[in-house]
Design a protein that fits this description.
The structure is a homodimer of 200-residue chains.
Chain A (H helix, E strand, L loop, with lengths): L5 H11 L6 H13 L2 H17 L1 E2 L6 E2 L5 H4 L4 E8 L2 H10 L4 E5 L17 H10 L4 E4 L5 H14 L5 E4 L15 H9 L6
Parallel strand pairs in A: 3-4, 3-5, 5-6
Antiparallel strand pairs in A: 1-2
Helix pairs in contact in A: 1-2
Chain lengths: 200, 200
């Protein structure tokens, strides 16, 4: 016998499809949406539909956006000589929050992964090459994650971008701020030692 | 400057309103919904709207349901002499999953909490009393959480249900199955000792 009605089970199933949301979380979110003021749930549903309808990929950097080109590509305040290459659109939020970087971005929409069947054609790499042909980019910052796949992607990009004769950099790998060195893994410590900088 | 369009930020804000979903999770869910097949997002939105429209509270036990009385209250297979009192509708799922309990439920929709301003009037207690007046209930199982608020609620219910002269029980408190006694807090161990059962 079903404990709940079909519509409730349907909602739980739909919520469970979202990565990181398991059965328990889906149940809790479902009941939260059903117990609160109907406005909360209906506003969420409307926001999902609206975001789906109005969001496109920027034709230059492949960021998710409501306008093409996106606000960063269209801005006159950005340093157009730098392009920071990231895996996913939400990586841009993290970098923008630092307030330090004023250049442009390029979103790959993934990393190379032979296991998952993601090759160079699945990523927005040809779009990046097109941007280098066009205007005066002097530096490409590879900001893919320091994982096997992220490093492989950075390595692949370095190889194919060599011919453009521009500066190619990788974001620094090292100890995270506030870390206790006793609790940091040895690969990170090794990278932090390798990448040590002069202070005197 | 906004990193993303207004519609994307709107969706992130709506997702953040859900308890246990923080900024990072909201961003990841948002981009998941925007990157996947549109059907995934639109099905979720439709499921939310449908669940909101078709879900009501059972007029007997206050469970969330698509029909009144709910499937458990309407079932002829349930033992109508037992009522298990729970805090929230999703607690019913956990108890039903054991497959052991065949009685009815009563959902309080919360616990007593002077700090949060939740008094007896805010809970579905008068509905429970009405059920005891009607038919032959012989046992009330108090299955509120073993927290300060859950215990206070169980204590309060015991006091006001005394006059019905029926058996009132509390779900057992003790060591969870598979627990290593070294890692169990001392209050739980104390309760497990108090509640020890004869084996020979």
């Amino acid at each position: 016998m079903e404990t709940f009605s079909l519509t409730i089970n349907k909602l739980i199933e739909e919520l469970k499809k979202i990565p990181t949301i398991g059965r328990k979380s889906a149940q809790r979110i479902c009941f939260y949406l059903l117990k609160k003021d109907p406005k909360v749930a209906l506003d969420l549903a409307a926001a999902i539909v609206e975001a789906r309808e109005k969001t496109i990929l920027c034709s230059i950097c492949y960021n998710l956006t409501g306008q093409d080109p996106c606000e960063i590509c269209a801005s006159k305040q950005r340093d157009t000589t730098k392009i920071c290459v990231v895996e996913e659109p939400f990586n841009i939020i993290s970098i923008e929050r630092t307030g330090l970087y004023k250049g442009l971005y390029h979103v790959l929409h993934g990393n190379l992964s032979p296991i998952k069947g993601v090759g160079p054609e699945e990523l927005k790499i040809s779009g990046l090459q097109k941007r280098l042909g066009g205007y005066s980019v002097s530096e490409i910052i590879l900001a893919t994650s320091p994982t096997t796949e992220g490093n492989a992607t950075a390595h692949y990009l370095t190889e194919i971008l060599k011919k453009y004769k521009i500066r190619i950099t990788r974001i620094a790998l090292g100890l995270p701020i506030g870390a206790d060195i006793d609790y940091v893994d040895s690969v990170t410590i090794a990278r932090a030692m390798e990448g040590r900088t002069e202070i005197l």
